[in-house]
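Newbie here. two chains, one complex. Structure please?
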Amino acid sequence: MLPDSGGHFGPYGGKYVPETLMSPLRELEEAYLKYKEDPDFQRELDYYLSEYAGRPTPLFYAERMTQRLGGAKVYLKREDLCHTGAHKINNTIGQALLAKRMGKSRIIAETGAGQHGVATATVAALFGLECEIYMGEEDMRRQALNVFRMRLLGSKVTPVSAGSMTLKDAISEAMRDWVTNVRTTHYILGSVLGAHPYPMMVRDFQKIIGAEARQQILEKEGKLPALLIACVGGGSNAIGLFYEFLKDKEVAMIGVEAGGLGIESGKHAARFAAGELGVLQGCMSFVLQTDDGQIGLTHSVSAGLDYASVGPEHSHLRDMKRVEYTNVTDEEALEGFQLLSNIEGIIPALESAHAVAHAVKIAPKMKQDENIIVNLSGRGDKDVQVASEILAKKR
Amino acid sequence: MRSNRITAKFEKLARTGKKGFIAYITAGDPDLEVTRRLVIEFDRIGVDVVELGVPFSDPLADGIVNQRAAERALKSGTTLQRVLDTVKQIRQDSQVPIILFTYFNPVHHFGLEQFVADALESGVDGALVLDLPPEESKDYKKLMDMKGLCTVYLLAPTSTDDRIDLISRFSTGFVYYVSREGVTGVQEKMVGGVAAVVEKIRSRSGKPVAVGFGIATPSMAAEVASYADAVVVGSAIVQRIEEKGTAPDVIESVSGFVAELVKAVKR
């Protein structure tokens, strides 16, 4: 079973944090492992996932997309239909319930696209917790609507103007807050990143996506899918879909990173295409970095994929050759965004549109009796402004 | 193997009944030539140990003052290699003990073995890797020990007794106690109860205990020196470097402040 007791997935993961956080991380791990086995905790989690978040989410057969592509049947796992519009709520409900049991009265979070921030602000409102969200100034500009939503939900949104003013800077600022207020505050990290136990814990809260999808596809098709596709920023929606299928050797899996303006342009967030082994914000993984070991600047049309490192378990799954990782460009993602809107009436998040774009490439090469599940991790309402600006320029 | 300058310094302090003063600056802020001159001047005015910060793009344990210093240092073209080169230059004029204060990624990227070899060769005496706890330190610790370089680790108010013991075992030279929960940066006054924790760490570890984070004035430094073996001041010095920038009197002005801190600790 991975990770090992120190939080390692092979050479990846671990706990690379300042000493002040070592005891709180141990406390969090102990609490998590205890409540994971606690029937009351599980009952409460299940209750909020179904009655509040709207689980299970449908597995939708995208018939017109399938016909258009002329190959494998494409199914969409509709995480975009979760309350707040993305899979992020699966994790924030779990961690907020944990924070309550740990006696923490305040929660903090980082956010890139704003989806995790909104999901955290939402559970803070639901459970009556004080909440502060850190968000890069650049991302606040790109995702103004989500900033408003978080404030409406009663959270404080604090702009981060350091560094590249995106997700990684928001994580650093949230970690600084946590170091300072660690006795009263729980940090709800939004992806399978950071120091142990986060990559394990967030994965466990997200694996319900794959657990449902596996059952649903067996009911609909009577067999397992040939392929799973998900976008990978930190990688929580991807690991969430993949995890329960890992034992099914016949199921192939592809993680799609942000190719930005193309790998050769240097403006992307494709850690597996151009990154090296390194440590960023608590864990060892593939990291985009400079020749001097500084963290590289990233680019993606989607704020949620715009991060220089990737969840350590993904690095391990890549080494094991269990999951293949590829990338699609901003332009391809925008085409996927438009296509799904046009022929299925579903506006995907720009993050999820990366997964859609890869399905567009690969489905035609597959047999018609094969099935693909694409994780539609979030809805695209938040992205319409950015997309309309870019598409207007292209015309 | 040559005797380590940090260990020798703390032995001498203990022999003479004096307290140590440790000054932190970010290497390359505003440029490496100023860093070189500052270190030499610090030595001359009685600073016992210099901590040289290796700038990193994502310094999550640092407050805003040191974050800005790192940004300036990176902008001036500072790299780990160039910091090592600067230490080598400093060694022509000064034998003050030098510790590198760094995040792990630049070191990891440099290559652990290469880093340890080059650090020794440049005249570095030890390192404190902020985000490398003992649990992730196996290779690093072994290599540093082999070359006789000090490995300094942080202890924090959140550290439990078993962690105090673990970190005491891993620390050579001295143990660095972070006086409060939080990042680096100045504060108005010391939080209470630090003296008792320092005493506990000293008795459990049998090693000298330096206290840092938040110490901003000579009077705070004097207060901490009354119970700790050494006092670390960082952001308050960095703030003065920031104010002076590349002004011609930057060395004189910053050293003037540091001399006051030294005096407060040594009185």
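Moderator note: Chain A has 16 helices and 14 strands. Chain A has a mean pLDDT of 96. Thread marked as resolved.
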